[in-house]
Amino acid sequence: MKNVILAIEQLKERNIGIKFLIARDGDVREYLEKLAKEKCLTDVVIFTGLLPRDRTPEIMSESLVGIANLKELESLEYAMPTKAYEYASCELPVMGSGSKELLAFIKESKGGIFVSTNPHGIADEILFLFENPKIRVKMGKRGRRFVKRHYDRKEIAKSLKSYLEVLVNGAKDN
Prior knowledge:
- There is one protein chain.
- By secondary structure, this protein is mostly helical.
- 59% of the residues lie in helices and 10% in strands.
- It contains eight helices and five strands; from the N terminus they run αβαβαβαβαβααα.
- It has helices at 2-13, 26-38, 56-61, 82-89, 100-109, 119-131, 133-151, 153-173; strands at residues 20-22, 45-47, 66-69, 94-97, 112-114.
- It has a three-stranded parallel beta sheet.
- α1 crosses α6.
- It is elongated and about 70 Å long.
- The mean pLDDT is 90.
């Protein structure tokens, strides 16, 4: 997340008027708040701490993009942040980095952009999405469709039910 703060610094210098909401807590939050103060970003970065689950859709409905930024570590290469599914289900394009699993999700869904973890690259892609609302909306819709098709519990239950019916009916026929 440090690189996201550094990307925000670059975007503030471009004077484009974007605000960022960071919903984190603990030591990471303290570090990021300190960094944001050092970089004079307190007017464009809002730290909320952890939000109650029932407020998540409300907050996301006011957002343009969801950032799922993981460190590039071998131990995290197959990690998939839950927030990426949440962003996509709320029709937010997912901007992700740092994980092969997240890269695969973004490629398959066509619901976002996978970026390097360097601040300049992150800033450029945020700016691209900000300046291209049609692309942003299209990505959001594709991401939502993908999540609904592949990760919605009701859809998974229906699919499982139909497989079980085929197995049970096939067993009865024998």
